[in-house]
């Protein structure tokens, strides 16, 4: 999945997460136990996706930042540290994409 496409989908789910978050505090929804249970399950599932999204965006940002810093950094020790950070983030991105894809599959 391309980064932008995945992020677009996840951004839509963040909106839904926020909406559900508001709904589960609504007294009318709480009174309707069937709807409340359904929404709290959805909230829990969306929460996992929102957290994975946050980590994914962080890794993408780490890659961009490390590449930018490597281009201007002169200190060998700092460059090595940046390379390690870059490598770890680049390794984590496909893992997160896979985790997110699995979270997106309806249970």
Summarize the structure.
With 107 residues, the protein is mostly helical. The chain has helices at residues 3-23, 27-31, 33-72, 76-104.
Q: What's the overall geometry?
A: elongated
The parts where pLDDT drops under 50 for at least 5 residues are none
Major sheet characteristics: none
| CATH class category label | Mainly Alpha
- Measured as a percent range, the helix fraction is over 70%
- Radius of gyration (CA) equals 19 Å
Q: How many helical stretches?
A: 4
Structural class: mainly alpha
Mean pLDDT: 93
Beta-strand residue fraction: under 5%
Under CATH, the topology can be stated as Methane Monooxygenase Hydroxylase, Chain G, domain 1
CATH architecture: Up-down Bundle
N-to-C series of helices and strands: HHHH
Distance between the termini: 20 Å
Q: How many beta-strand runs? A: 0
Q: How many individual domains? A: 1
Descriptive notes:
- This protein has helices at 3-23, 27-31, 33-72, 76-104.
- With 107 residues, it is mostly helical.
- It has one domain (3-104): Up-down Bundle (Methane Monooxygenase Hydroxylase, Chain G, domain 1).
- The longest helix has 40 residues, at 33-72.
- The mean pLDDT is 93.
Features:
107 residues, mainly alpha, Methane Monooxygenase Hydroxylase, Chain G, domain 1
Topology:
Elements (H helix, E strand, L loop, with lengths): L2 H21 L3 H5 L1 H40 L3 H29 L3
């Amino acid at each position: 999945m391309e980064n932008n496409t995945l992020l677009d989908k996840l951004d839509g789910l963040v909106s839904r997460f926020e909406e559900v978050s508001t709904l589960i505090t609504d007294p009318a929804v709480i009174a309707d136990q069937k709807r409340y249970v359904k929404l709290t399950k959805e909230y829990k599932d969306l929460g996992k996706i929102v957290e994975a999204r946050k980590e994914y965006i962080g890794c993408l940002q780490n890659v961009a930042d490390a590449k930018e810093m490597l281009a201007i950094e002169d200190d060998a020790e700092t460059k090595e540290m940046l390379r390690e950070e870059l490598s770890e983030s680049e390794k984590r991105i496909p893992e997160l994409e896979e985790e997110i894809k699995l979270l997106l599959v309806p249970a």
